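Standup, Tuesday
Yesterday: got the pipeline producing structure tokens again.
Today: sanity-check two examples.
Blockers: none.

Example 1:
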Amino acid sequence: MGRAVRKTNGKKYIELSVEIIRLNLNAPNFLDKIRDTILHEWAHALDWEKSKGWGHGATWRLWMATLGRPANRCFDSKLWMVKPNKCQYAIRHDNGRIYQYFRNGPTDDQIKAAKTWATALRLPNDQLALVSLDHGWTRQL
């Protein structure tokens, strides 16, 4: 639902995924999950600033304990989509599986290939969607 980012130029920030938030709006305890996500990412930032730790290691878990939160994931990871550099779109199945990422929108041939992929995996074709990674919209294919 979120991530802590550190750039080679020294810039650091925390961001939340608009798409995952949208998908989880009706989840039980939604606001608690948002709070836990922000604290989870904040622990990553503190871990990096204080000990150059990164990931979910021992020092990160200590920061989570200091913040009074359990050291665990706050969301259903099948919904998480890591965005490759400069990619703006992805074709995703409703079950969360990613077919392919695209810098520009997919061509008709690429959409046809995605439907073939879904059929080969015995996934219903009507559950394929084009996802805008930058703008948070989803369109069924």
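Example 2:
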Amino acid sequence: MKKAIILLVALMLSLGTAVALAGPGHAPPALKRKFMKKLGLDGKQIKQIDDLTYRADREKLDIRHEIEKNHLDLQQLMSADKPNEAAIFSKLEKISALELKLKKNRIGLMLKIRAILTPEQWEQLQEFQAARQAKRREKRMRRRMHRGMPDAPPGPPDAPEPPPAP
């Protein structure tokens, strides 16, 4: 029983990180360029952003692979007949450090891009991102309502009342 619980915890840790790191897919390059032009970026800005993004994405891939390998190691440590608590906690700290490195990679990229943009371009980008997040939230809520998830609100405020039960 204890072994099953340990394996379950390891699986939950692995899945949680995998979901958090996966995030939404990247936009196709043509769509990114179209959006960059819409923001009014010049050729130099686009080139700088492309270069920064390429380097950050390569580093991100390396970090993600390290996280996955460390999760595999953690699973092996936790499935031992007598799990070594110190080794497990050490591995968890390594995974946490890698996850922090990944977050710094993404935020660092955003800050470098922000430094390239004019204040007006940055404001437009913020507005676009806010609208995109609102659409995602709305889509998530519709999926929850469709699935009948308990934490979803009963329906949109303008939804008709269901007929009374006979």
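Quick observation on example 2: Helices lie at 2-22, 29-38, 43-78, 85-116, 119-147. The chain has five helices and no strands.
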